[in-house]
Amino acid sequence: MASTVFFLWETQGVTAKWKTSLVVSALVTFIAAVHYFYMRDVWVATQSTPTVYRYIDWLLTVPLLMIEFYLILRAIGVASAGIFWRLLIGTLVMLIPGYMAEAGYLNITVGFVIGMAGWFYILYEIFLGEAGKAAEATASEAVKYAYKAMRWIVTVGWAIYPIGYVLGYMTGTADQETLNIVYNLADLVNKIAFGLLIWYAATSESQALTEK
Ligand SMILES: *C/C=C(C)/C=C/C=C(C)/C=C/C1=C(C)CCCC1(C)C
User: Which of 41, 117, 123, 142 is the 20 to 30 Å CA partner of 72?
Assistant: First the structure.
């Protein structure tokens, strides 16, 4: 909630084309906060894992996080619609089988394998695909820096979820409580730190403009 207020407040200080990026960051943290309120209530009342709420949150926030890659590339004029669609498809392929497996509608291993394929597809696009190439070609140092840091979050920060899934469902080494704490901490980094990187690019780019 606090980061939502921060991102919205900061829209005042950036140029028009960067406002969308900051508003999307605020939406991500806002949607997460609302779902965390639900999840806390479920946990307090039943001591059981609120998997459904977690996935509803992810299905809304992960596509928005992917849109951020598209938006920062668009703000500097190097994005195509294909980038947007490929990242969106990767997200759905990653999350839907994951949910189906965690909720008991799909075999755990099958859900994992398809989900991993979706994640790798996203990584391919942002490192080696059109998005990665577009970011490499940009003249803006701030956008390059933010883009690179954002894709490391998608690599390292996101790896926490499949690791948690393996420990929780495949090897049985993590109990539900541990799994919840791990997912919570991962969300903190992957949503708020990610948003702060966008804020960094947006404010740096806007400042560069006013100085000119
Ligand atoms: C804000 C929430 C975020 C960034 C959630 C990200 C979730 C993932 C990266 C989930 C990944 C999974 C796989 C790669 C394999 C299948 C199981 C999942 C869904 C946990």
Answer: 117
Q: Give the Å distance between the CA of 161 and the centre of ligand 1.
A: 5
Q: Which domains does the chain have, with CATH numbers?
A: 2-211 (1.20.1070.10)
Report the atom number in ligand 1 closest to the C-alpha of 190: 4
Note the pTM of the prediction, 2 decimals: 0.93
pLDDT category of residue 8 using cuts at 50, 70 and 90: very high
- Ligand 1: centre distance to CA 182 (Å): 12
Q: What is the DSSP string of 110-163?
A: HHHHHHHHHHHHHHHHHHTSHHHHHHHH---HHHHHHHHHHHHIIIIIHHHHHH
116 lines ligand 1 (CB under 6 A): yes
72 burial via Cβ count (<10 Å: 0-12, 13-18, 19+): buried
What angle is formed at CA 100 by the lines to CA 38 and CA 159, rounded to 5 degrees? 80
Q: Ligand 1 pocket, 62 CB below 6 A?
A: yes
